[in-house]
Specification:
There is one protein chain. The chain has about 120 residues and is α/β, with parallel strands linked by helices. The protein has a single domain, classed as 2-Layer Sandwich (60s Ribosomal Protein L30, Chain: A). It is about 30% helix and about 25% strand. Strands 1, 2, 3, 4 and 5 form a five-stranded mixed sheet that branches. Helix 2 links the parallel strand 2 and strand 3. Helix 1 packs across helix 2.
């Protein structure tokens, strides 16, 4: 099964947090973005994915100011796990071709997740 999602707006990288630092504006933005990803997954209405998975993420920005790729991917993984797309992000064993940062006036994240056999 292959599922495609588009998250509108500027992608927000994951922030490493402690109990104290999760109340900063930057951390709140990151958690809000992860919740948005979770809601997009739930809106698609798909079942929980089982077994090994492949994740492809394309992040589109207007300018060259953005977080690093690994933190952007981590935000997507955490958001999908929060939305119960899968049990644990350890199920993601591959990243798809084209995963990366792109430039376009329409800021968004395009996500494709698929079960591997």
């Amino acid at each position: 099964m292959k599922i495609e999602l588009t998250i509108p707006g500027r992608p927000v990288p994951a922030q490493r947090m402690t109990r104290k630092s999760k109340w900063t504006d930057r951390a709140k933005r990151s958690l809000g973005y992860q919740k948005e990803i979770a809601w997009e997954w739930k809106a698609v209405g798909k079942r929980k994915l089982e077994g090994p998975l492949k994740l492809t993420c394309k992040f589109f920005f207007k300018d060259r100011r953005h977080g690093d790729l690994s933190n952007l991917i981590k935000a997507v993984e955490d958001g999908l796990q929060y939305g119960q797309a899968f049990n644990n992000d350890k199920q993601i064993i591959r990243y798809g071709e084209g995963t990366g940062i792109y430039y376009d006036n329409n800021e968004r994240a395009e996500i494709v997740i698929e079960e591997l056999k």
